[in-house]
Design brief:
heterodimer; A: about 170 residues; mainly alpha; 7 helices; about 0% strand; B: about 280 residues; alpha+beta; Thrombin, subunit H; six-stranded antiparallel barrel; six-stranded antiparallel β-barrel; 5 helices; about 25% helix; about 30% strand
C-alpha cells in the first residue's frame, strides 16, 4: 500500500480509538490510557523535524477537538515530535536507520522500543499532566499519574502492534 | 542581516517548535478562562454528531439504572401532588395565586459525552442554541447540581461540570447558613471542597449542602451534597470543607437545564451598586 494512504488511515483510526474508546475508560488514580503518540512514532524516519511537528500539531488539534482540552494534547504531542529525532539519534543502531523499514517493535527490537518510546512517552505524559494541573504543589500527584499511566500506555501500544502490524521477515 | 538569517536558519526547528507550542498553549489557557468559539470542542457540529451517534449505542447499557432514577423521581414528584395530600380543613375557597410568579424554567437534556477522571471535566449535552440554551445557564439532575453551561453551538452545548477546578457555585450549609464557593481538587469524582467558610464558626458533619441561589443561576435549595470532613486551611482563618457529592458524576445521563427568567432584572439591579464603594 502507498505510504501516504497507510498513514492517513492510521490518522483516522488512532483518532477514533483514542477519543471514542480510550478517553472513556477511566479507571481511577488519574490513569489515562494514551495511544495516539504511537502514530507519530511510526511515521517514516527520514521525515524532518518541522514537517513532523506540523503533522503532530494538526493531529493534536483533532484529538483536542474531541476531548475538550483545546490545545493541551497538541502541546504535549509537539514535545513528543520535537524530541523524536533527538531520541532517535541517541539510540540509533550501529549502522544507522534503514529508511525503508518502519520503526515498529518488530523491526527495531524490544530494547530499542522500550527505551525510545518510554522516554518520549514519559516526556509527553509529564508535560500533559503538568499543564493540566498547572500547580507546583500538586507535583507529587502529577508524578504519580505519569508513572502509572506511562507503563500502561507502553504495553497497550505494544499489544496493538502485535495485533495490527504484519511481521516482516528480517534478514 | 546575513547574520540574522543565518541565526534563523540555525535555530529554525526550535523557532517553529516555540511558535506552535505558543499557539497550542495560548489556545488552551484562553479556553479554560473564556471560550471564544465552539470550534475544536465537542460542541462543534462534527464531533457533536459523532458523540451523539456513540451515545445512541451506549445509552442502553445503563437503562435499568436510569429507570430506577426516573421511578424515584416520579415518586418524589407524586408525593407533592395535591392528590397525595389529605384535606384537613374543608370549606376553603381556592384563589388564583398572583403573589407567586414563575422564576425558573426547566428543560430536559441528555449527556452524550462526559469524563470524570481528567483535571477539568466537561459534559456535552444534546441541546443547543436552537432550543434556547445560553452560556451561563445552570444544569442539575434529579439528585444534585451538575454544572453551568460553558459554551453552546446550534445543536449541542458543553457544560462546565462540578468536576472542574473553578466551578465556583454559590453554596450554603442548610442548617447553619454559612456560605461559600464550590471547588474541585481534581482527585476524587465523589468529593468536592467548599471554600470561604470562616473557621470561627462551627460546621456540623453530615449536614446538607445546597445551592445558595445568589448568582442568579440556580434556585435556592438544590442539593449539592453533605459535609464529610472539615480541616483548617493553613495560614488562613478558613475551613477546608470536604463535600460528598449527592450526584454520581461517573454515570450521569439525564439532566435538566435551568433558565432564570428574572436574571436580567437581578443583574441590572446589581450593576447599580457603585464600584468604588465595594471594597
Amino acid at each position: 500500500m502507498n505510504l501516504f494512504i497507510t498513514h492517513a488511515l492510521r490518522f483516522i483510526i488512532f483518532l477514533l480509538a483514542q477519543v471514542l474508546v480510550l478517553n472513556q475508560i477511566e479507571i481511577g488514580l488519574g490513569i489515562q490510557l494514551i495511544i495516539y503518540p504511537l502514530f507519530i512514532l511510526l511515521l517514516p524516519v527520514e521525515l524532518k523535524t518541522i514537517p513532523l511537528m506540523l503533522i503532530a500539531f494538526v493531529f493534536g488539534l483533532f484529538i483536542d477537538a474531541f476531548s475538550n482540552t483545546y490545545g493541551l494534547h497538541t502541546s504535549a504531542l509537539l514535545i513528543f515530535a520535537y524530541m523524536r529525532p533527538l531520541v532517535f539519534k541517541l539510540f540509533a543502531p550501529r549502522d544507522g536507520y534503514d529508511i525503508l523499514l518502519e520503526t515498529n517493535v518488530f523491526n527495531m527490537g524490544y530494547r530499542w522500543y522500550f527505551k525510545t518510546f518510554g522516554i518520549l512517552l514519559l516526556l509527553h505524559h509529564f508535560w500533559f499532566f503538568m499543564f493540566e494541573m498547572f500547580k507546583l504543589n500538586e507535583l507529587v500527584f502529577v508524578i504519580q499519574k505519569t508513572f502509572i499511566s506511562v507503563p500502561l500506555s507502553i504495553f497497550l501500544c505494544l499489544f496493538l502492534q502485535y495485533l495490527f502490524i504484519k511481521k516482516t521477515d528480517q534478514p | 542581516m546575513r547574520n540574522f538569517l543565518a541565526f534563523i536558519r540555525r535555530f529554525r526547528v526550535l523557532l517553529v517548535f516555540a511558535l506552535l507550542q505558543g499557539v497550542a498553549l495560548s489556545l488552551y489557557f484562553t479556553f479554560v478562562s473564556f471560550p471564544r468559539s465552539q470550534y475544536l470542542t465537542t460542541a462543534s457540529y462534527f464531533s457533536g454528531a459523532i458523540f451523539e451517534f456513540r451515545n445512541g449505542i451506549t445509552k442502553h447499557l445503563k437503562l435499568s439504572d436510569n429507570n430506577t432514577w426516573l421511578q424515584n423521581e416520579n415518586i418524589r414528584l407524586m408525593e407533592q401532588l395535591p392528590v397525595s395530600f389529605i384535606k384537613i380543613e374543608s370549606g376553603k375557597v381556592s384563589i388564583n395565586d398572583t403573589v407567586h410568579r414563575q422564576q425558573y424554567d426547566y428543560m430536559p437534556a441528555t449527556v452524550i459525552n462526559s469524563t470524570h477522571d481528567k483535571r477539568n471535566n466537561y459534559f456535552t449535552l444534546n441541546v443547543g442554541k436552537q432550543q434556547g440554551v445560553e452560556r451561563g445557564m445552570g444544569v442539575f439532575s434529579s439528585s444534585g447540581v451538575v454544572g453551568v453551561i460553558h459554551n453552546t453551538s446550534n445543536h449541542f452545548s458543553v457544560v462546565k461540570s462540578c468536576l472542574t477546578e473553578n466551578i465556583n457555585i454559590d453554596i450554603i450549609i442548610e442548617k447553619t447558613g454559612q456560605f461559600g464557593l464550590l471547588k474541585w481538587d481534581g482527585k476524587d469524582a465523589r468529593r468536592g471542597t467548599m471554600y470561604g467558610v470562616s473557621n470561627d464558626t462551627k460546621v456540623l458533619k453530615w449536614s446538607n449542602v445546597v445551592t445558595r441561589g445568589g448568582g442568579g443561576i440556580f434556585p435556592r435549595g438544590l442539593n449539592v451534597g453533605k459535609v464529610e470532613r472539615t480541616k483548617v486551611v493553613e495560614g488562613k482563618p478558613l475551613w477546608d470543607i470536604t463535600i460528598l457529592y449527592s450526584e454520581n458524576y461517573t454515570a450521569i445521563q439525564r439532566v435538566y437545564i435551568i433558565k432564570n427568567l428574572l436574571k436580567e432584572e437581578q443583574y441590572e439591579l446589581e450593576n447599580l451598586i457603585p464600584v468604588d464603594q465595594e471594597k
